[in-house]
C-alpha cells in the first residue's frame, strides 16, 4: 500500500510516499527556516503563504522521486493537528483535493503520533509496546505506545516545550531562530556546573510532567541582571548549565517512566532529539539499565511527511479514515 502524505503543521512543507508503513519511497522537505530567521521565530501568516506556494511542487517532487504516478497511490494522508491553523489548513485542503480527485481514502494524522512513528521508519524491527520520549519545538511528553493504535500519555509539559525553551533563551543570547542547535554547540564549550538554575517541579517527586517556564525565566533573568550590572557573562557556562538542567530533568523522568512501566525500549522523537547533551546522557543511562535506545536520524526527528505516511498506514490497517469534510485542528489533543 502506497500512501502520499502531507505535513504542513509549522514551517516545513513536506510530502512523502511511504510503502506499507515502513519503506520511504520519497520524503521531500521544503523548509522555511531562512524566511522566518529574520523575524526571530515562525510568523504564522508568512508560513501559510509559503505552504500555499510550495505544497503542490513538493507533492509532485515526492511522486517523481518515488518513481510514482498518481495512479500508484492508494491513500492520501495529512497532518490534522496540532500546529498553526493556517499552515495546517493548506495541507488539509491539498490532501482533500487529491483524495477527492483520485477517489482514494483520506487519513487524518495526529502530528505527535507521527513524530513517534518516525522510529518505525528508522528501525524495521521495532514493534509496540515501547516507551517514547517526545521532545520537540512545541511538545514535551512521555508516551506508552501500547500497540499500533493505542497510546497512553504518562506526562507532558504544563507550560513551555523543551525546544521552545532552548529557542527563547538562544534568542535572548542573540542567536537566530531556531536557537536550539546554537545552545547545543555553545554548551559543549562551557562548564555545566558553573550556575545552578532551578530544577523544574523539584518538589513533585512522583510527577512525570514537565515545566520549563520557571527555568526559562531564571536563565533570562540571569542574563538580563548581568547586562544591567554590566557584568561579563560566560555564555558558554550559561548554555551548558541550562542544557544540563533540562537534560537531567528529561532523562530522569524518562528513566522513572521506564522503571514504572518495565519497558526495555525507549524511542526518542522530536527535533530536540538532535541535542548532543541529551543523546549522550540518554545513551549512558539506557546502557546502564540494559534499555534499547531508538533515535531516528535528524531528518526524521524534525517535521517530515514520511512520519505522517508511516502513522497513516497503521491507521488504515485499523480502518480509521477521515471524511472529506475534515478540518484542521490546531489543538488536536494527543
Ligand atoms: O520537532 P521539531 O521540528 O518541532 C516541532 O514539531 O515542534 O523540532 C524543532 C525544535 C526547535 O525548537 C529547535 O531549536 C530544536 O528542535 N532543536 C534543538 C537541537 N536541534 C533542534 N534543540 C536543542 N539542541 C539541538 N541540537
Ligand atoms: Zn513537529
Automatic annotation (TrEMBL):
| Top-level taxon | Bacteria
- Annotated GO biological process: tRNA threonylcarbamoyladenosine modification
Q: Where is the Gcp-like domain?
A: 24-309
Keyword Cell wall biogenesis/degradation tagged: no
* Amino-acid positions noted as binding Fe cation in the UniProt annotation, renumbered to this chain: 111, 115, 303
Cofactor names from the entry are:
Fe(2+)
Q: Which residues bind substrate?
A: 134-138, 167, 180, 184, 275
Q: How is the cofactor bound?
A: Binds 1 Fe(2+) ion per subunit.
Any one GO CC term of the record:
cytoplasm
Q: What is its main location?
A: cytoplasm
Does the keyword section mention Manganese?
A: no
Cellular localization per UniProt: Cytoplasm
The signal peptide annotation in the UniProt record is none
One GO molecular-function entry: tRNA N(6)-L-threonylcarbamoyladenine synthase activity
Q: Which PROSITE patterns match?
A: GLYCOPROTEASE
Catalyses:
L-threonylcarbamoyladenylate + adenosine(37) in tRNA = N(6)-L-threonylcarbamoyladenosine(37) in tRNA + AMP + H(+)
Q: Which PANTHER family match?
A: TRNA N6-ADENOSINE THREONYLCARBAMOYLTRANSFERASE (PTHR11735), TRNA N6-ADENOSINE THREONYLCARBAMOYLTRANSFERASE, MITOCHONDRIAL (PTHR11735:SF6)
HAMAP family given in the database record: TsaD
What family does the Swiss-Prot or TrEMBL record give for this protein?
A: Belongs to the KAE1 / TsaD family.
What name appears for this protein in its UniProt entry?
tRNA N6-adenosine threonylcarbamoyltransferase
